[in-house]
Automatic annotation (TrEMBL):
Region described as Disordered: spans on this chain: 328-351
Keywords tagged on the record: Membrane, Transmembrane, Transmembrane helix
Chain ranges passing through the membrane: 36-53, 60-77, 112-136, 148-167, 179-199, 211-230, 242-260, 272-291, 303-321
Biased composition range(s): Low complexity: 336-351
Organism: Streptomyces spectabilis
Protein name in UniProt: DUF998 domain-containing protein
């Protein structure tokens, strides 16, 4: 079997390399504009991680379910073995573990694991991938890296992860137990295996009905991510923790079910995927303002940085939405007859 062909220049690669840490750290409000140097250090971990997730999914013919599962594996690697956040009860001077949802046998909290999966799966990986793919519609589902580029990206990711691990250990002097690392590793392997099985299985058969309009999909994404993210930022009291856990499960369960159905209906396409990313991105733009940077600093500098990063994010979003809409309008019309899904033997175009 011939290896997947790559096409075009390295523009999308560079864009994703930069956009992943920007969304994951700066747009969220963890880092401010004056801390761009830290962003450069984090780019190999975030950017190369997102590139590897996308490349693995696209090279195996997998769509967004595969990307999401691999992104979840990335999330657990970053906050598990790399920076140890999942088990460190004094990370950055804060105890994020010992709330009502803390599980002594695991040494971590349910709420923290959920937050890690949400932040990195959705925003650090899936949103940047969706936005960059929307900007290059002709290359949306093709690999972007050749063999050499894939090797360089993998090496840069490992070096970036090692740098973050070393920096955190030098500051925190914390190491998780072998049992904790082994359990995390087993979950990561399980997610990767499941992703590869989904890729081999191919798309599920279409379902009856037409997909909602892209703006409705985007509004649903904005509402769902805001429903989870807003209270989790503003309500930090112990009494809310288990409510937040249940809310996360409800939003995630409904979201997976709804998108899983919509993406197999007639009319679903790249604009819908872009709309999902848009809704999630707008939640981050709004939610960044109550988030205080990890480094502290003045409130004025924080607000200015949030405004600058929000404006940049909206600029990228506008480009992605405009390009996706233009690509759809220029798509050749097909003669009346069986639906796309029927003509393709039941494959879904959720991408």
């Amino acid at each position: 079997m011939a290896p997947p062909r790559t096409s075009g220049d390295g523009g999308p690669v560079l864009a994703l390399f930069l956009l992943a840490p920007f969304v994951g750290e700066f747009l969220l409000g963890n880092l401010t504009v004056p801390e761009l140097g830290l962003g450069v250090l984090l780019a190999p971990l975030y950017g190369c991680g997102a590139l590897l997730v996308r490349e693995a999914a696209r090279r195996t013919g997998g769509g967004w379910p595969v990307i999401a599962l691999l992104a979840a594996a990335y999330a657990l690697i970053e906050e598990g073995p790399v920076d140890q956040l999942l088990w460190n009860d004094s990370y950055a001077g804060q105890d994020l573990l010992h709330g009502p949802s803390y599980v002594p046998g695991l040494g971590t909290g349910v709420e923290l694991v959920q937050a890690v999966l949400a932040l990195h799966t959705v925003w650090s990986v899936c949103v940047p991938i969706a936005l960059v793919e929307a900007c290059v519609p002709a290359r949306r589902t093709t690999p972007w890296l050749g063999r050499r580029g894939l090797v360089v990206t993998a090496v840069a990711y490992v070096l970036g992860a090692a740098l973050v691990f070393w920096g955190n250990y030098a500051e925190e002097h914390f190491l998780a137990s072998p049992a904790q690392l082994a359990l995390c590793g087993a979950v990561v392997v399980g997610l990767v295996v499941l992703a590869l099985r989904l890729a081999r299985r191919g798309a599920r058969p279409p379902v009856a009905g037409s997909a909602p309009a892209p703006w409705r999909v985007g509004a649903a994404a904005l509402a769902g991510t805001s429903l989870y993210w807003g209270p989790s930022v503003l309500l930090t009291a112990d009494w809310f923790e288990w409510i937040g856990v249940a809310l996360w499960c409800a939003v995630a369960g409904f979201g997976v079910r709804a998108v899983g159905r919509w993406s197999r209906q007639e009319g679903w396409g790249a604009r819908h995927v872009c709309a999902l990313a848009a809704g999630a991105l707008l939640t981050y733009v709004r939610a960044a303002f109550p988030v205080r940077p990890e480094s502290g600093g003045s409130l004025t500098a924080d607000l200015v940085s949030n405004a600058v990063c929000g404006a940049l994010a909206l600029t990228v979003l506008a480009r992605a939405v405009r390009t996706a809409r233009l690509a759809e309008s220029e798509r050749p019309m097909t003669p009346a007859g069986p639906s796309r899904s029927a003509r393709s033997g039941g494959r879904s175009y959720g991408g």
